[in-house]
């Protein structure tokens, strides 16, 4: 890693720099939210394959979302965002509805979106399956004191729960709020991108179960090329809000191993607009702390030396 910042910036081969001698091509997820139908097959497949306990069977009052967000027992989360269609100037806002809707019909040119007309105007659903981003620069991995978190040969980030000591340092370190400690257990859990399946030459369970190919798995560079083409198709068809999120290798986390095609601003989906790896400034912080410590030691030495100098001067 000579000549590169070890905790931020472009990182062409995270697996090799993590110590894997001959790693395969880095793999990841491309989630195309424009074709997500909100079926939650990914959530079910993830729980079944990884034996994740249930985490809420009651309605939350947030549309059809019964889990609300990613957590220790929710490694895939399908979000349902209800909003009015974008205003001419591009702004969006949540609708005030009186409960009267017509039968939902998809708008022209975009699959995966549902729209309904009511007293408050046209309504659309933005549906998206969220997951751990498997960051190029993973702060959770950087702060783990036991080695429970590690970089695999596929470039993904995995938690070994049998090594986790429950310190919780990784929880606030994640800029996406993905990783969490399980109540009553204390250990941290998150998506492993089905590391056991990858080792057997299989795709992750969620991508295997997705009926619309909203979740696509494969070599990361191929996925990025495919995503760029998809954005172009959507914009040519009149979907001006189509954009990619997490695909740039020069962003605050060095690019994500799981990135998304969104139809609105990241904040609408509950994603940070400009995530930054939280350990990026650690070298500078330690440098400043060291300088402050030296200054403090110098001041202490001077405080002890000055009285002796004064006494010698007065005794003359």
Automatic annotation (TrEMBL):
Superkingdom of source: Bacteria
Region Disordered, annotated ranges: 1-26
Required co-factors: [4Fe-4S] cluster
GO terms under biological process: cellular respiration; formate oxidation
PROSITE patterns found in the cross-reference section: 4FE4S_FER_1, 4FE4S_FER_2
Subcellular location: Cell envelope
Binding site for [4Fe-4S] cluster 3: 132, 135, 140, 174
Keywords: 4Fe-4S, Iron, Iron-sulfur, Membrane, Metal-binding, Repeat, Transmembrane, Transmembrane helix
Pfam families per record: Fer4_11, Fer4_4
A GO cellular component annotation in the UniProt record: cell envelope
Segments passing through the bilayer: 289-310
Binding-site residues, [4Fe-4S] cluster 4: 144, 164, 167, 170
Record: residues binding [4Fe-4S] cluster 2: 46, 191, 194, 206
Residues involved in [4Fe-4S] cluster 1 binding: 36, 39, 42, 210
Principal cellular location given in the protein's record: other
GO molecular function: 4 iron, 4 sulfur cluster binding; metal ion binding
Domain annotation 4Fe-4S ferredoxin-type: ranges: 27-57, 123-154, 155-184
Keyword NADP on entry: no
InterPro entries with a match to the protein in the record: 4Fe4S_Fe-S-bd (IPR017896), 4Fe4S_Fe_S_CS (IPR017900), FDH_Electron_Transfer_Unit (IPR051555), Formate_DH_Fe-S_su (IPR014603)
Cofactor note: Binds 4 [4Fe-4S] clusters per subunit.
Keyword Cell cycle listed: no
PANTHER family attached to this UniProt entry: FORMATE DEHYDROGENASE, NITRATE-INDUCIBLE, IRON-SULFUR SUBUNIT
Entry protein name: Formate dehydrogenase, nitrate-inducible, iron-sulfur subunit
Organism field: Streptomyces hundungensis
Gene name for this UniProt entry: fdnH
